[in-house]
Amino acid sequence: MILFELPKPNVVVVTGIDTTLLNPAQWHAALIRFAEILQVMISISYSQEKEAGKRRFLANTMRWNLHKAMEGSDPRRGHQWGMIQSVIGRATLFGVSGVKAGTAVVTFSDRMLQALAPHAYWYARKKVPGGIIMAVNPAWLSRAGQYLRLLETRAIAERARRFRANPQRAALQVPQFGRRKLTLALTAWDVTAKCAAKLNRLGR
Question: Which of 27, 44, 156, 160 is deepest in the core (most CB within 10 A)?
Fold first, then answer.
């Protein structure tokens, strides 16, 4: 079962990746989509003047607010001309590792952001409470992770379907009861698929 950890504010560790369900390339593509969903959440958080959807950016001085009003720029904190917001909304600001031993790492990078919007370096240190603009809220992981868990559930169900279509692949058979022929392996796959679907619905 896929699980998520956040060892650092901008680093997500995904564990429990089963490469017998999908190959590493397929999982890598899915992890990129997972990271894109998280980056959208980061972008929304920034538009709300918050770090990781929680702590608000430090307040501007009255003098700076007046200056922004006079020049007609965006009054929101961190949005003078919208450059940082624009970069977060359009550029890829993360890296995804390969899958190794069922684990992959997604890293969001302030350095990538700063390469495209240099003043983000100053802003992160002076105005963002945690000093990292590309920070992830732990509460987002379950929501964004629904995409990966849905793929996992579908892959388990598909493997169970293929197993039912080819019962000769079962490693161990049990006697026939009535008109239905059962195998221990087939029964195990059915239970696994049902459990995975239930857990996915519960968001666990």
Answer: 27
